[in-house]
Records
---
Amino acid sequence: MNDPVRILERLTILAPLGIRFWDALSNSLIADGLRVTGYPSNNPARSVQAITNRSGTYVLQNLPGMRDIEDGAGDAEFWAHLPPKRPFVVEVVDSYRRFQPFLFAVDLPVQGLFALECAPGSPPHILGSPPHTGMPMVPLYSAPTRPVPGAMAVLRATLVVPEKPQNPLTDKPAAWAMVEAHVAGHPPVRGFADEEGRIGLIFPYPEPVDFADNSESPVSLVAGPPLTQQTWPVQLQAMYTLLSTVPPIPDICTTLMQSPAKLWLDSAQTQQLTEVTLKFGQELVVRSHDSRTGTPLSKLFITPAA
């Protein structure tokens, strides 16, 4: 009879940070193409790139100054007597240019999967927030360079801040400004502009109007317009906080928590833009108009609400 197995030594390796990323447009976990790096908040030069495990989780290990933590047991006793956490910054950049880059601050180690504390500012019903799966995920936001899937609608704009009236040469990009679009029958879709103020919101088309009631009789129904002539109203809301210095990669919490802003239909900023019309099969490009000529401009003016 064989002797029972005796464990002479147990080796554990603890990962200080594990993150999962969620894309609401494709309704899927994103486990490829993201370059996730972490570094001490006071030393960006000592960055470490995350690896992806089989479950699609990005894992950061071998971080500077975290050797004792990574050699810890990871049991209840370990977490109950954890030494002071250390501040790190995590950067997320998509190599395929599908999603906007961002960064966030985090104190390590984190027990379990990382949850973005500022995410409650994006309600779960908003397109761009992960579903209630019981598993924390960090939402991703579409970049203006992202290819538009077939049978999807897209809203595009180039957001600028007017510096001086009637002098377009002084306008500057509204880097990292947020826009939220509301379409009947669908959750709102939210996204933020890139460093040049360009934004692209991709979302499903609303249900077509198949029938229109032409009288008081319930049986007197006539077919609605063909699909190629269908239109829908889209309500817009904007959030933007002026930045004294535009960072190359935005802090995601600072971006999500920007103050309300106004979009303007005209260059003189006398008519606020709150609704546009989506047409089936056409990109919805939202622009301001020249107040003097009525000519559409190549940009959309935005200003903080206050």
---
Amino acid sequence: MLKNIRQTGRLLLAAVIACSGFTAAAKVEMKTVEYKGWKNNLQLSNGVVELIITLDVGPRIIRYGYAGGPNIFKEFADQIGKSGEKEWQIRGGHRLWHAPEDLKRTYELDNSPINYEKLSESGVRLIQPVEPNTGVQKEIDVTLDPGGTKVTVTHRLRNTGMWEVELAPWALTVLAPGGTEIIPLPPKTPHPQGLLPNQRIILWPYTDLADARWRWGTKYITLSQDNAKGPTKIGLAHQLGWAAYLNGGALFIKQIEYKDGQTYPDNGCNFETFTNQEFLELESLGPLRKIGTGQAVEHTERWWLLKNIPNDTTDAGIDKNIRPQVESLIRQ
């Protein structure tokens, strides 16, 4: 009799929960895991997507993808799981540099262990030892939303040296080969109303505008990664707020900040993109700042993933399948 009463009670409780629309709160699980030869890594997962953050080298986010699915980021197999090299290693994933680019300053080694602090149940701060040649200390705060695919990544450069330095945070995401990047363009204004420019495009010396990987569309620039072709790169004063990369039906979205009236590196670039025969890179940059001793600058990106996106990167296809979803996410 008592057993039947308890069973009836459980059924009634289940019915009340179902009718109320209540669901168990989503949460982020954070744990230390091995990953492809590295013994110490943090895994952040909310059951939808997961991140792998290296602790034996870095700071670096080496993986971002749907739980159990492929990595949207590029991994260099011959460098994964290794550490202590005497030369800088690209490895893949997401990293933090400081701009403008310089062979000595930019390519400081990040091949040794880093520290971390837990910021919350869903966030962590990665702390690199001070760079010996620059006096700069790199930090990356990573927070995964409990539900969905959103990741907030705050990059920090701290001057621990004895004198002021001028630099800009530079966040670089190395993406797996085989996809196409999408960069929205400002809306067109007819002549003679559109008398002033509304877009700045910066070219690198090795960039060929006749390269078939580029499509200079009416509403979008697209850039396809090609395993048979070498480097090409452009930079933009990009005020549309986002760029994306479509690869095998998965769409990686990066939200990009632009601050009016600020001076950006590389002739005014807050966004740059590079590709070669191995990967494609989405890069965002903060403004140039003079940072005194003990001071720091920050630069934030936000990421999302979407799946089952049709492989149509024409202007019409992007308008139909991609842009509405991207802008909806960014508005949230």
---
Amino acid sequence: MRTNSMTQAKVFSSITFLACASFGSFAAGPRPVRRLDGSAIGPADIDSTVTRLMRSAEVTGVGVALLNHGKIAYMKAYGFRDKEHGLPLTADSVMTGASFTKAAFAYLVMQLVDQRRLDLDRPVEQYFPKPLQVACATAN
């Protein structure tokens, strides 16, 4: 498998776009997922988009979860968690988010700033109800 970080970044960006553009209501069966613009995308279209992106970027496996108001609207694992041994990726497979989580956390923080619930000029310790206690280990 090629480990081109630019290609992997494009796939993660594409899948992130798919997730952000496809929020919908939770469905117990294969129902269309509503996008932000009000249009719908069906599970077959989601599957074909994800598999096409995976193939073009030579990604072995990916998990996709589409959320609507904090609830899962669509969730599926694609590909393998261990291609050499033929072990499929499952919805409960543990994967590392690496630096992708930094961008997701930054987006969340900026939403809180927009809602005026967080001030970037205020020291972070002022948001805690009591001071942090730092435990120091001493060597004997």
